[in-house]
């Protein structure tokens, strides 16, 4: 992340959104879909971002060799605190646009746990995490 901050332009877009309908939808999912009882608002945001990136692929791009290069996959990073110590972990849900909410919920819990476990044991994560997009400041997880 430190290298990216020093070599890649970064910009932030801030949007406030009413999520009343999303909260209602989440409750309906929990009541009617097997396995949806652990779906969080963050999982819903990951799914929404993934679908938006699929619809607007030019947003899922990098500046490479003087031109924009579109990413082939949609990988969403989840900023989480480590279980011990200070810092930030960013485990990634790969190919998030190809997953439904329950799959995203399950995978996000798994990648967060793996990242925290690797950090606790002071070992490197098993997989190189490729991050295409990262929503920030999600409240109400």
List the main descriptive attributes of the protein structure presented here.
about 140 residues; single chain; Chloramphenicol Acetyltransferase; about 40% helix; mainly alpha; two-stranded antiparallel ribbon
What is the gist of this entry?
The protein has a single domain, classed as 2-Layer Sandwich (Chloramphenicol Acetyltransferase). The chain is built from four helices and four strands; from the N terminus they run αααββββα.
Distinct helical segment count: 4
Give the biggest sheet.
2 strands, antiparallel
Note the beta-strand portion. Answer: 5-15%
Give the CATH superfamily.
Chloramphenicol acetyltransferase-like domain
Structural class by secondary-structure content: mainly alpha
Count of domain modules: 1
Q: Would you identify the CATH architecture? A: 2-Layer Sandwich
Shape: globular
Would you spell out the secondary-structure blueprint of this structure?
Elements: H1 2-7, H2 20-32, H3 41-55, E1 61-64, E2 67-70, E3 76-77, E4 92-93, H4 101-120
Antiparallel strand pairs: 1-2, 3-4
Helix pairs in contact: 3-4
Describe the model.
The protein has 141 residues and is mainly α. It has one domain: 2-Layer Sandwich (Chloramphenicol Acetyltransferase), CATH 3.30.559.10. Helix content is 38%, strand content 9%. A two-stranded antiparallel sheet has the order 1-2. Strands 3-4 form a two-stranded antiparallel sheet. The protein starts with a helix and ends in a 21-residue tail after the last helix. The model has no long low-confidence stretch (mean pLDDT 82).
